[in-house]
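FW: tagging you since you asked about this chain on Friday. Here's the raw sequence from the shared folder, copied in full. Didn't touch anything.
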Amino acid sequence: MALQPGDPAPEVTARNQAGETVSPAFAEPTVLYFYPRDGTPGCTLEAREFEADIESFRRTGAAVYLLADPDGTVADAFDVEVQGDFVDRVTFVLADGEVHEVVDADTMNPEGHAADVLEAVEAVAE
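HL: got it, structure written out here
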């Protein structure tokens, strides 16, 4: 089971799109989302909606991460299930070093998901 609200945010290190090593502290509002696989309809829709809303997230001071996690290190740190090449669809809203909200595939529709997460981030950022 993935980390839950109130759990401390784990310390993680990963590479960003520029190949740089990043270690987010999760002190500021942060969205970290995992999805099963690039190029599938739901995953593509979800990523495009986050991209379309990125300026709204930035206005709240939030960072948004969809990351490549080829060895599963970050998924393991967040207790996100990985089966073969697929990772569970789950989104974390973090701030103040802890998990504030978790939305998993059982309660999520990729369409409109970014807007729902933005509302959660705005509440955390207040």
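FW: The chain has a mean pLDDT of 90.
HL: agreed, and The domain at 26-125 is CATH 3.40.30.10 (Glutaredoxin).
FW: great, closing this out.
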